[in-house]
Amino acid sequence: MDPALVDQKVHTLNNKIAPKIDCTACGNCCKTLLINVNEKEADALSEHLDQTREIFDNNYLEKGMNGALLINAVPCHFLKENKCTVYNYRFEGCKEFPAMHLPHFNKRLFTTFMHYNRCPIIFNIVEQLKIETQFVLEPKSETL
Ligand code: SF4
Ligand code: SF4
Questions:
Q1: Does the beta carbon of 73 lie inside 6 Å of ligand 1?
Q2: Of the N and C termini of the chain, which has fewer Cβ atoms inside 10 Å?
Q3: What tens digit of pLDDT does each residue of 66-90 get?
């Protein structure tokens, strides 16, 4: 199927399904994923929390293998009763997840399916997409 048509279908499904899912009843992304943070985001949130960067970094951050900054705990420190306590200062990755509004769905299948059983939005979009595209597994050819 034309990748642009797949994107169109995914975006339409996302607009229909995402508003029906209550993220505050789920929180699986905040509970189970490693969260990337950039310097600008760390500066903004540390200032909001009235902490120096040194204290903020000690409290909440670690460096990943490639040197990138990550939140040092899973679930995320800032999730309380399934709600983000720093919502206006949450990170780009938090805003973007589960990325069903982005283009090139067909190039993001690996990550999409990595989160398929974690995120009800992804699960429902993929299941509906299978119906709409009449997706069927090709039967294996018999070998003698
Ligand atoms: S995993 Fe999906 S449904 Fe659950 S809180 Fe995150 S974005 Fe919302
Ligand atoms: S900063 Fe907020 S939205 Fe992002 S992972 Fe933590 S609790 Fe979730």
A1: no
A2: C
A3: 999 999 999 999 999 999 999 999 9
